[in-house]
Amino acid sequence: MKKLLLLTITLPFSAQAINFEDIRFWAGSGTNRAAVVIDFNDGQTPRSYVWGYRWNGSARGEDALRTIVQADPLLDAVIDQFSFGASLNTASYLPQSGGGYRHSRAQDFGPAGLYWSYWTATQVNPNWAFSNSGMSDRVLNDGDIDGWAMSDPNFSGVPPTSPVPAVPEPAVVIALGSGLAAVLRRRPC
After folding, report:
1. Residue pair 93/101 in contact by the 8 Å Cβ criterion
2. Angle, vertex CA 163, rays to CA 99 and CA 73, nearest 5
3. What are the mean pLDDT values of the chain's consecutive 10-residue runs (189 residues total)?
């Protein structure tokens, strides 16, 4: 009788496609930079987007997500507060390029059992790791990458896929450009 030896090779899921120089939508200000990826895992293409977050001092994953949601009029999120911290409940993104994405833990949790899983990586180590803490407890460092992915019903997290840059709405770009022009006009020569 022959014995079959089965080897399981686990390849790390990588966030290496995230180049901070390619991020087009930045929220916040400061010298530190982090990226936030939201992957809707809904079969549409693209289904995963990336935003940038800037800050000085200390910041947490929750700060990054809330700041980005506040800055991008095309992105909406419901963040629930629990005794252990904040958790993403619903996210929707409606890019002008067509299509739209919306997932709600409350809506999708039922028979499908879907939930938002939280992942972390860095530019130095781009392999996604299921977060050991929630976004309220995660202290960000320059170069960190946070990822949210709609995951499967068996509570086995699905890491985010390679994202495309979220694009600022034209009105946001115009407002930012007007603000920059006003600052440059006031600047002494």
Report:
1. yes
2. 50
3. 34 64 97 95 76 98 98 92 88 70 54 78 92 95 95 73 84 44 45
Which strand (E) or helix (H) includes residue 175?
Answer: helix 170-186
Residue 98's pLDDT is what? 58
Domains (ranges, CATH) in the chain? 20-186 (2.170.130.30)
- Given a contact cutoff of 8 angstroms between Cβ atoms, the answer to whether 56 and 65 are in contact is no
**Residue written as tokens 């977060």?**
131
Q: Give the sign of the dihedral formed by CA 94, CA 153, CA 83, CA 140.
A: negative
The amino acid occupying position 73 is P
Radius of gyration of the chain (CA): 19
Mean pLDDT of all residues belonging to the chain: 78
